[in-house]
Every structure is written in C-alpha cells, then in structure tokens.
UniProtKB/TrEMBL annotation, chain A:
InterPro entries tied to this protein: NADH_UbQ_OxRdtase-like_20kDa, NADH_UQ_OxRdtase_20Kd_su
Gene3D superfamilies assigned: 3.40.50.12280
Gene Ontology biological-process entries: aerobic respiration; electron transport coupled proton transport
Entry keyword Cell wall biogenesis/degradation: no
Protein name as catalogued: Dehydrogenase
UniProt feature, compositional bias: Basic and acidic residues: 1-14
Length: 184, 158
C-alpha cells in the first residue's frame, strides 16, 4: 500500500503536532483514493461483508462444530467473523440443529431481536430438512419457509471448513448486493 | 432377600391386586398390579421390601387389546432384584393413581407419560406437559393411532 513512517519525538525542529509521541502518519493517499473512487454501495458492502458477527446459539451437535469454527484453530477472525453472545450485536444467525415445535417461537424471537442488516445460515442436515428426525412429531420441516435463508451448508455435522466456506459464499453474496440494506 | 421371597411376600400381602407374578431370573421379577391399588403396593414395596429406588415410569400402547399399560421399574439399594410392575388401563379413559407421594422422582416421569400417552395421573401435584409445548397436549404422540406426523418432504433436498 504505502510506506508508513513513525515520527521520532526526539526531533526538535518538527512542528508541535508531529511531536506527539505515538502518532503515526502516512505518506500515501490510498485511503483517500479509495474513498474518492469507490461507489458508496461498494464501500457499504465491503464493510458489511468483513464484519460478519455470528450469534453463538448452538442447537445441537453442529453447534459444537460452530464453536470450533469460532475458536483459535480455524480462526474466523481473519475474515472478520467473530462470535457474539447477544442477538443485539449479531449480524448472522446460524440455525445449527433440528428446530422443534417448542423451540421455534424462541428462535423467531431471537431473529427479530437482531438488528438489520442480518443474514441467516442453515447449518447441517437437521436444520435444512429435519435430518434423521424429519418424521418426528415435534420437528418443524422446511425451515426455509419461515426464515429467509441465505446459505445452506449440508453435512452431518459439516466440518468447520465447510461452515467457513459457507461464510465466504455469504460474503460473495453480500458483495453483490445492490441495495442499502433497508429491506433485509 | 431373594426373588422368590419377595414375590411370595408381595402376593400374600395383596392377593387380589397382584396377578401373574413371575420371577424371570435371579434378579428380575415381573407382575401385573390392579390399577386402583398401585399406590398401596408401592408403599408396601418401599416400606417392607426395601424397594427404595424408582427407576422409571413409562407407558405402552397395546392398540389391538384396546389397552394402555403403565410400566414401573422399581429397584433396591439393598438387594439386586428389579421389579417390573405393570398396570392395565382402558384406552378410552386411562386414569391411575399417582405415586409421587411414595416415590418423589415419579413426578417428571408421570408428567412425560401424561403428555405422550394421555394417561391421567390422579392426585399428581403438578400435572402439566414436561417437554412438549402446551398446544400439543391432547395429541398424545406416542399412541399408535397418532396421525400428526409431518408429511411434507423437504423441498430443498428433492
């Protein structure tokens, strides 16, 4: 990008503003050029896709893989994907298990508590179709009629790499958005 | 105290309530109990025969015989015998006395049997559904003639 110079505080002939210890100035105009030459839509999309905070709401054994994905080994932080404990701070909800009839109202409430723009991913066969419990008396089928699912990640359970791939696909999807996010 | 001695004591104490008392092995005994006397029988088992541990309460639907059965597994900390008590109930109006006052841990077992089979436990302190949502009460999903299974296939897989 550009070279970064750290001003020495010991130089006596500099101006007083540059003499503040710890202040780093840059000689490049890359940030300024980016702001001038990029469309606002692209800039918003760029910001959104690189800060996908997901809600830690594990619902089954896929939730264990989800937590493993968020931990240090797979390190989703390099994509800006970090786990959050509150739906108020989350951008992505992961449905990571079978949805029972009793749990569906709570899940809907969590989804409504998340501020827009927000996305939802289906993790694992159970959440996509019911999995091995598809014929159970207490399982809700066809979860895509209830939530606007963005990405499906099949697997039983999917590996953390597969979930990471799902997040990358979601980033591609966000990158191609042509709206300001008011109707999410 | 071995299994023959236990069954003899039980049959002598309740000659009209206990039927088909059999010893399946050295450590397993089974018997049918009259549905009106189940609380007294359990009290007797706990007080006199050292059966102080209720393992489970569950239900079975015998739709061809038009009967429901409640199955109690009762064991002991002092001798190795596990007793399987069964009570036959009519399928139309299944009611049985609750044994929570004898074995306190029967509380949740009976609530689960109630929500899955519709067996009404009389004098239960808090008879409501345990795991299922409230609006599924009355469907009795583990009965053999239950119709409410989801019949839609997952469209996104087909």
């Amino acid at each position: 990008m550009g070279e970064v110079k750290e001003k020495k505080a010991s130089k006596p002939d500099e101006t007083s503003e540059e003499g503040i210890p710890g202040v780093i100035t840059t000689t490049t105009s890359a940030i300024s050029d980016l702001l001038k030459k990029t469309k606002v839509q692209d800039l918003i999309n760029w910001g959104r896709k690189n800060s996908l905070w997901f809600m830690t709401q594990p619902m089954g054994c896929c939730g264990v893989e989800m937590i493993a994905m968020g931990c240090a080994h797979y390190d989703t932080d390099r994509f800006g994907i970090i786990p959050r404990n509150s739906p108020r701070q989350a951008d992505v909800m992961l449905i990571s298990g079978y949805v029972t009839k009793k749990y569906l109202p709570a899940l809907k409430r969590l989804w409504e508590q998340m501020p827009s723009p927000k996305w939802v991913m289906c993790i694992g066969d159970c959440s996509i179709s019911g999995g091995p419990f598809y014929e159970s008396y207490s399982t809700v089928q066809n979860i895509d009629e209830i939530f606007p699912i963005d990405v499906f990640v099949p697997g039983c359970p999917p590996r953390p790499e597969a979930m990471l791939q799902g997040f990358v696909e979601l980033q591609e999807k966000i990158k191609a958005k042509k709206d300001l996010g008011s109707e999410y | 105290m071995d299994v023959a001695e236990i069954l003899k004591s039980l049959t002598d104490a309740f000659p009209e309530a206990i039927s088909e008392a059999t010893a399946e092995s050295e450590i397993r005994a089974g018997s049918y109990v009259d549905k009106d006397k189940v609380k007294k029988v359990c009290q007797y088992l706990k007080d006199s025969l050292q059966f102080d541990h209720l393992c489970s309460v569950c239900g079975v639907d015998y739709i061809k015989r038009n009967e429901l059965e409640v199955v109690y597994h009762i064991a002991s900390y002092n001798h190795p015998v596990v007793l399987t008590l069964k009570a036959r109930l009519p399928r139309e109006n299944p009611e049985i006395e609750s044994i929570v006052s004898v074995y306190w841990n029967a509380n949740w077992y009976e609530r689960e049997t109630y929500e899955l089979f519709g067996i009404l436990f009389k004098n239960h302190p808090n008879l409501k559904s345990l795991v299922l949502p409230e609006d599924m009460l009355g469907e009795w999903p583990l009965r053999k003639d239950y119709e409410g299974f989801p019949n839609k296939t997952a469209r996104n897989l087909v």
